[in-house]
Design brief:
The complex is a heterotetramer, with 2 copies of chain A and 2 copies of chain B.
Chain A: H1 4-8, H2 33-48, E1 55-59, H3 63-66, E2 76-79, H4 85-94, E3 100-106, H5 107-112, H6 115-124, E4 128-134, E5 137-138, E6 144-145, E7 154-155, E8 159-160, H7 168-174, E9 179-184, H8 188-200, E10 204-210, H9 226-232, E11 233-235, E12 237-242, E13 258-262, E14 268-273, H10 283-296, E15 299-306, H11 329-332, H12 336-345
Parallel strand pairs in A: 1-2, 1-3, 3-4, 4-10, 9-10, 11-15
Antiparallel strand pairs in A: 5-6, 7-8, 9-15, 12-14, 13-14
Helix pairs in contact in A: 2-8, 4-6, 7-10
Chain B: H1 9-14, E1 18-19, E2 21-29, H2 34-47, E3 52-57, E4 66-74, E5 85-90, H3 96-102, E6 103-112, E7 125-129, H4 131-138, H5 145-161, H6 165-175, H7 180-200, E8 207-208, E9 218-222, H8 223-233, E10 238-241, H9 248-261, E11 273-276, H10 280-293, E12 297-301, H11 303-308, H12 310-319, E13 323-331, E14 337-341, H13 346-350, E15 360-362, H14 367-384, E16 387-393, H15 394-398, E17 400-404, E18 418-419, H16 421-430, E19 449-450, E20 462-464, H17 478-495, E21 503-505, E22 511-516, H18 520-532, E23 538-542, E24 544-545, H19 549-556, E25 560-565, H20 571-579, E26 587-591, H21 600-613
Parallel strand pairs in B: 1-8, 2-5, 5-6, 6-7, 10-11, 10-12, 12-13, 13-16, 15-16, 18-19, 22-23, 22-25, 25-26
Antiparallel strand pairs in B: 2-4, 3-4, 9-17, 13-14, 15-24, 21-23
Helix pairs in contact in B: 2-5, 2-6, 4-5, 4-7, 5-7, 6-7, 8-9, 8-14, 18-21
Bound molecules: thiamine diphosphate (2 copies), iron/sulfur cluster (2 copies) and magnesium ion (MG) (2 copies).
């Protein structure tokens, strides 16, 4: 793996240090999975050498949705309404399509109240990163079942959950999201690489990250706990990330032992083969592997699907190079002649 | 029955000619394609210089239910609805019996000669029309038959009222964008029908049209098109919407005009984006996201969609995000009457959103004002950093009106207090080297904002609907909460100067009449009628909420005030009461909501009732 | 520092004993488990017969941020918040410096002996507490350490204030449902701490507690539990909800109590169903569906959730469907301060929904009234076939209060005008053999409804939010629309008799004070203070909107009226203005919204300011 | 096929004639697919001998959602809000669980604004029939694209659709609906049998019916048109429906040539093999066949998936036999003693 930090000492390729990517101190519970994810976001952005001012953070409402305050202080951010991050992000990112959108939501925020907006964001292939910090409960309202809680789960307040869980990756896949991955807050190395890949993808990158809620839902035998995850995680591949500017060595490409996918900006995601042969460019394969994981009771992690060439929402428009929000008023108001023509065309007498 | 068959024919003929001052209702079945015929007639009258207005009363359905289209010709220029018909063109057998009742004595009925109905009136003139026969002779393709049938009445009316055929042709050419084939097809039927009428019908009614000079420099447009154009000339950059009657055509007009008007001449790229959202929650969310990002941004909706936007409007109010919401009002509560008009969302919008809110409303009172408020709304929203709700209605929005031509904005675009990199640096130099998104530096309650993409390392801030301090940082501090909410209140108080003032007409009367929006058409007509009866009134058309001090002056300086509005509960009157409770004792609520635009006649009656009580 | 270290010790000792009349604030970090300690103390005081109230000021966060819990002991029985602390137990190093400032001169500070802070006060008594040491000696498991630390201050306070240890034990037994192990564990620490204090601290403050008889037959409950229990005794059959602070615990109490209270004794089946919905749009939709189907049905929410329910409330208003909505108010607009209290949704709920709407609100003024309105709300909703919004708030809903015990409903369940098969047949025999869902047979605006599953072939009808006639059939007829909307208005006018009347206390004063809901606690205390200053007021607590005529009488019969409420814009005052604009000139708005409950002191000050202006 | 009408003359097993199942005259456009569906609903209910008072109709808003007025006049009905049929139906049906819920929605109503409620209804396996009259446009608002409009579709007002369509069957499947079928308004015979099967299923039965909008969207080369459907329909099987009370003959079960599924009330759905072997009890098979249909550009129709034993929402409660809405007030209000106990338990002094 090519580590920007090692290569450049403390300054990354953008001339910034890790501190430039920090946020305010977290007010989440100690040990909360969400905090680990924030750390990996900081690490990924730092190592990729992204300019924080070129990232815009979005979230909904929940513990997870609070976390954008805890990374990237120098980025704009919008803590929207519960379940409505997608619409705010979509509108906000049209303002300047040269910035990168980075959204953080929760399982309640996305799969309960936010189901509709999430699905439609995916359908539009809105180019942004969409992280779901998935703990199977509503953390901020103190531990009710969310829509991703597994059947049979017993929680202190609510008794047993009798519903089948929503699988966020499945949902993203059937609605044609162009990048779908599953991560685990207890597996930071893989997580960082997934975040890097997501940040480099041109299209909607959905990252469903199992992120235990240590306060309300971390029983060892439950799907969303650290222990269960650690014991049942099956990595689809050993994922590595090669930035456009880095040289790819022969060794990275040991033939037959890895798959690689080139993203639009020239970066390459290398997936070294582990147990299984897996082709992440086939949506149907992804459906199959998820079904298999469910049957085999494993936590499958890795890049499930990517289509680097899918048409994004921005591709459907013909937008200027200059950000829309910097256009001069003169570019916004048509001329007086244009109005005269309109008047004429309206059957003027 | 042949030619004219009315027994009281002689009586009628004695009456004087009525020129350019009557009302025709076309009753048809919706989906039968009568719109072309009706708007062609309207355009024809317009082109003749006759003041004309058209009202389409249609069902919430696509095909097969009754629809009425009323054209009012008014020498004096009144454009309001009237209650009775002078002429009815009855194309729908299922409703003709009722329509006959609405014809004034001495009025006229045109009907297809094979339509069966019980004629209960001996005081009207009835003209049969051999529609089936004429169509048969015209050899149009079967799929066009229904549609072209309507051209028969155009031709017959032309003959009977004295409409110049060449003006009809001009209107058709306009309609078909100069495509010869359809114009000729239609003209052929019109010609034949007119010919037939000339030969077979004897004029025995008093109605005539004549060219006049009633609308020089005017145009024809509906309010939704005008609103869309106004928005485009206001520099709209982002629109998100979800289809709903009667607002859809506003967004659809944006779709229509933006490619032409908002493609950058240099780069060939588009400067205005439209997204059809999955619902209204998303539409307003996208619009607010874009407004936050620094785009002039809007959405349009009505009734149910408006209600769905409640939570987001509260966010924009408190996080101070500019966004324009066109609310083309229809009849509520609930799904209500989706294709009928009302002014029923006034109190709701005022208090929309939980907690203390207070939303700005603009009430366009005419089609050309829809254009004007189209661009002004953005200046206000960006200047005050808050949602602006433009309160149009179905009558204004969906009906085609004659209206003074659109006037180019007389003020430059006002983007309010925006800081880019250099502006920010200057500000930092001047103040304590820290940018505070919600810091009231100018004492007017309006704070400065930076926009997405601003690369200055101090530009970024974090927006939220939760409690925040001057630096946009999260806080639950009681004092800070109270202060920030009070600052916002101050912002609104100070901000009134950016809002269009009410318009007044003074007669030095002790009584006043107040209304908003499209209610002004019947109200202004009523004023004339009352004046003719020696009842004179002063008149104020309010154009915004919050209310200007001029409104209070008006209330104070009159002894009785009639507040005319199209809703059940007297919603405008309620806002006036809150503003000036001491004056409320003078208020007389003239309200009604039945889905139809108000009429001068009804208003006059209501006012007379009150006069009699005195 | 040893024992008491205050320089002005002598001075303080001279002061008289203060018994059962002071205020203790515990400042902790949330998630540190202080709730058990604090409620145990509250319950102990309560069991001693001392009037006591507790207010929890907590952040919108799960762990680590500052939290304050204030216990007020009041011999005279006042339960409102007070602004200053007599005693502070400071467990949070990050806030202690601020808390010191809030202590009254002569007050007391307890603090962990290893906590570092700058003591800026020489007029207070400071007692250090060796928490770490005592815990170490107690050998509790590491995971319980934080939690059990709080028991140290319980023990020390017990010694210093004179709290009987056996009453604490009783409170703990209650808390742990008589489980010996935790009771003993806690009692052990409490005992040791008390012992330590006895040996090491010298009492040099004036505060003492003593048993008294201040709350015979009273109970302890929060308003949400009370609302849930009231609903259960009101026969709730269906609840749909979505979690949101501060409403969640209402639904959670239903989850807790329904299995026991609403399992049919004969069949063993449940007579009340709860569904946790995916959001508030669904929660209110489900509740309305169930209300329509004939179940006593409810939902509960706050702020953002309330806004999301807007469209559906409009449907229920117009389609006339009973449903109860508990709105446990928090600070808005927008996400606002989710864990702070307000009365800020009054105008919004009144006008909630596009079009002409008018919603019924009930304002419970105490915890036992939450119980009472819990069951009454269903009778009203079903009788009037419309949504009923119960306007509670966070202070009432989430804080634990002492309150008179719940009283069994004194009226039988009123299900309103429901027709089953036989009823319907009788009605058909009597009238024209046709059932009309919206036919006003009794002239009171309230029509009859049949319910899902009614097998009579004439029972079925089709419900819609679009225009409908008396037979529930779709129509766009203007007259019918107008008539049906006017009938609904009439229904509300006539329906007032089913609503709880305002409560008044008369002193034959020329000035009056009005409030709603939990504002009554500080207001009633303020009345006593003012009375002691020879300023006497008449007092009215309004309990519903629409307003009864008694409210107008009250307004008319007073010269000045203070309207006290917990919001920015004087929302109740606005509704009073609309009801009686002529009286508005007398209104003095005493309003504030900073997230904290009002205090008598502040109200008295505001009123005094007005007095001085006179 | 066993036809109730033939067997009993004009009266069906409930002693009712076809007229007892009629609704008001339709006000939809002539030729609208929705009208054909209404007819088949009438036919199915009549032939099944259902008692109309025991059916409750639900809908959202749209042309499709108007159609419940046009069948089953003797059934209660609720025309809810746009996209909100699921919540109204769920609450309404708890009132009396002995009635059958029959919902009709549109593609806009379900897949655009209604996505969230639809998905969650499926997740709960709410026992009712959920018909989507899918025409790829918003009919009632005059022909804008809905979320099921296919990519590349050209409509008069809006130009070309650039989004990928939502597949309602896929959505239902991944969210664990227990009965998923696709029908075509142009294939009434199959449709009737699908509706019958749906009405007999205990659980959520999602029927996605392609139902052309003749006024705004019936171009011959488009997925939602009559012509395209007629030309591209591939029936998964020849579906027949055997009611519990009917005898099943040997011939129905020609071994190897058909699959049968028994529903909870004893009725049997017989699926005679056509081209392909298909097992409708395997959710994964259903995903596969949908993917295949998309690839092969066919309109696959038939019963895609059924799990007759999936736990329904009602199964999660312990509800009395007597409908809840008929319980006497005495069953609703606990006793005075119960309240005294409560008071005691609240630390009463
Ligand atoms: C409209 C609305 N409804 C309810 C809430 C209350 N609420 C805040 S966070 C939350 C759930 C958050 O759960 P999730 O998204 O899983 O985040 P987590 O806290 O588990 O990280 C809820 C229901 C709200 N803020 N807004
Ligand atoms: C909240 C809301 N938004 C918008 C509308 C307007 N509206 C009515 S029907 C409809 C679309 C219906 O489309 P679909 O469900 O596909 O039904 P179809 O008419 O095509 O059968 C819309 C957007 C509404 N009634 N309510
Ligand atoms: S409550 Fe759970 S989700 Fe929230 S911060 Fe704590 S551990 Fe994380
Ligand atoms: S518009 Fe389309 S969907 Fe609506 S009734 Fe007509 S054909 Fe059917
Ligand atoms: Mg969660
Ligand atoms: Mg459709």
């Amino acid at each position: 793996m090519v580590d920007a930090e090692i290569r450049t000492g403390n300054e990354n390729s953008a001339g910034l240090t890790r501190a430039d990517y920090r946020g305010a101190p977290s007010t989440l519970c100690q040990g909360c999975g969400h905090n680990s994810i924030s750390s990996q976001i900081v690490a990924a952005c730092y190592e990729l050498g992204l300019v924080p001012e070129k990232i815009v953070k979005f979230s909904g409402i929940g513990c997870s949705s609070k976390s954008p305050t805890y990374f990237l202080n120098r980025s704009f951010g919008f803590n929207a309404l519960h379940g409505r991050m997608p619409s705010i992000a979509l509108g906000g990112l049209f303002a300047d399509i040269t910035v990168k959108g980075l959204g953080v939501s929760g399982d309640g925020d996305t799969a309960s109240i936010g189901m509709g907006q999430f699905k439609h964001l995916a359908r539009r292939n809105m180019p942004m990163v969409y992280i779901v910090e998935n703990n199977g409960v509503y953390g901020l309202t103190k531990g009710q079942f969310s829509a991703t809680a597994e059947e049979g789960l017993l929680l202190k307040k609510q008794g047993i959950n009798t519903y089948l869980p929503v699988d966020i990756c499945l949902e993203a896949l059937v609605t044609n999201a162009s990048f779908v991955a599953r991560g685990f807050a207890g597996d930071p190395k893989q997580l960082k690489n997934l975040i890097k890949a997501a940040l480099s993808h041109d299209g909607l990158a959905v990252l469903d990250i199992i992120s235990p809620c240590v306060t309300f839902h971390n029983k060892e035998n439950s799907y969303h706990s650290y222990l269960w995850g650690k014991e049942h995680e099956v990595q689809l591949h050993d994922i590595e990330f090669v930035q456009a500017r880095d040289e790819i060595t022969i060794e990275d490409f040991e033939p037959g032992s890895s798959k690689e996918v080139s993203l639009h900006d020239g970066t390459v995601v290398l997936m070294k083969k582990l147990d299984k042969d897996y082709d992440p460019t086939n949506r149907y394969e992804a459906l199959r592997i998820l079904e298999e994981a469910e049957r085999e009771n494993t936590l499958i992690t890795g890049l499930l699907f990517v289509d680097p060439n899918a048409k994004t929402l921005f591709d459907r428009y013909s937008l200027p190079d200059e950000p829309l929000n910097r256009l001069e008023p003169s570019k916004l108001r048509p001329s007086i002649d244009a109005l005269e023509k309109i008047n004429q065309s309206l059957f003027m007498k | 029955m042949t030619k004219t068959q009315n027994s009281s024919e002689q009586k009628l003929l004695k009456k004087q000619k009525i020129i350019n001052d009557f009302c025709i209702t076309f009753s048809t079945v919706n989906g039968s394609g009568s719109a072309t015929a009706n708007t062609t007639l309207m355009r024809t009258f317009f082109k003749m210089g006759i003041p004309v207005s058209g009202k389409n009363i249609f069902p919430s359905n696509i095909q097969g239910l009754p629809t009425w289209y009323t054209l009012r010709l008014s020498e004096k220029g009144y454009l309001a609805r009237v209650e009775e018909d002078d002429i009815v063109v009855a194309m729908n057998p299922s409703t003709i019996n009722k329509e006959i009742e609405y014809i004034v004595p001495g009025g006229v009925l045109f009907y297809p000669d094979d339509m069966k109905f019980a004629n209960t009136r001996d005081d009207i003139v009835c003209y049969p029309m051999p529609i089936r026969k004429i169509i048969k002779e015209s050899e149009v393709s079967p799929s066009l038959k229904d549609y072209i049938s309507n051209m028969v009445y155009v031709g017959i009316l032309a003959q009977m009222l004295g409409i110049p055929i060449d003006v009809i042709q001009e209107a058709l050419r306009f309609h078909f964008k100069n495509k010869e084939k359809p114009v000729n097809l239609n003209m052929d039927v019109i010609g034949k029908s007119s010919e037939w009428a000339k030969e077979n019908l004897k004029k025995s009614d008093p109605y005539y049209v004549e060219p006049m000079q009633g609308n020089e420099d005017w145009i024809m447009s509906d309010g939704n098109t005008a609103g869309a154009l106004g928005s485009i000339f206001g520099g709209v950059q982002f629109t998100a919407w979800y289809p709903i009657t009667p607002a859809s055509s506003l967004a659809e007009s944006l779709h229509e005009y933006i490619p032409e008007l908002r493609t950058d001449l240099v780069t060939g790229k588009q400067t205005s984006v439209i997204v059809q959202a999955e619902d209204e929650l998303a539409a307003i969310g996208m619009a607010i996201g874009a407004g936050w990002g620094g785009l002039r941004s809007m959405t349009s909706t009505s009734g149910p969609g408006l209600s769905l936007m409640t939570e987001f409007i509260g966010l924009a109010y408190y996080a101070e995000i500019p966004v324009v919401l066109w609310n083309v009002q229809r009849v509520g509560p609930s799904t209500g009457l989706p294709t009928r008009t009302a002014q029923g969302d006034i109190t709701f919008v005022k208090f929309m959103g939980h907690g203390d809110t207070d939303n700005i409303m603009l009430f366009p009172g005419s089609v050309n004002e829809c254009f004007e408020f189209g661009w002004k709304a953005f200046d206000i929203a960006e200047r005050l950093q808050t949602p602006v709700v433009v309160m149009s209605d179905l009558d204004l929005g969906m009906n085609e009106w004659m209206t003074p031509k659109f006037i180019y904005p007389d003020q430059p675009i006002d983007r309010g207090k925006i800081l880019w990199e250099e502006d920010l640096q200057k500000m930092l130099d001047k103040y304590q080297n820290e940018f505070g998104r919600y810091k009231d530096l100018d004492g007017d309650g309006i704070t400065y904002r930076t926009l997405v993409g601003n690369l200055h390392p101090k530009a970024a801030y974090f927006t939220r609907g939760t409690g925040h301090d001057e630096y946009a940082k999260y806080t639950e501090d009681p004092k800070i909460w109270e202060e920030s909410l009070m600052r916002i209140k101050r912002k609104f108080e100070n901000g009134k100067k950016y809002l269009p003032k009410p318009l007044t007409k003074t007669n030095n009367s002790k009584s006043g009449i107040i209304c908003v929006g499209s209610a002004s058409f019947p109200v202004e007509e009523a004023l004339d009628i009352l004046f003719a009866e020696n009842l004179s009134f002063d008149y104020m058309r309010i154009r915004t909420v919050p209310l200007h001090d001029e409104v209070i002056d008006f209330l104070q300086s009159h002894e009785r005030i009639f507040i005319v509005e199209l809703n059940r509960d007297g919603q405008l009157a309620q806002l006036l009461t809150l503003k000036a409770p001491d004056e409320a004792i003078k208020f007389r609520n003239i309200t009604k909501v039945d889905g139809l635009p108000l009429t001068a006649k009804w208003i006059v009656n209501e006012i007379r009732k009150d006069e009699e009580k005195k």
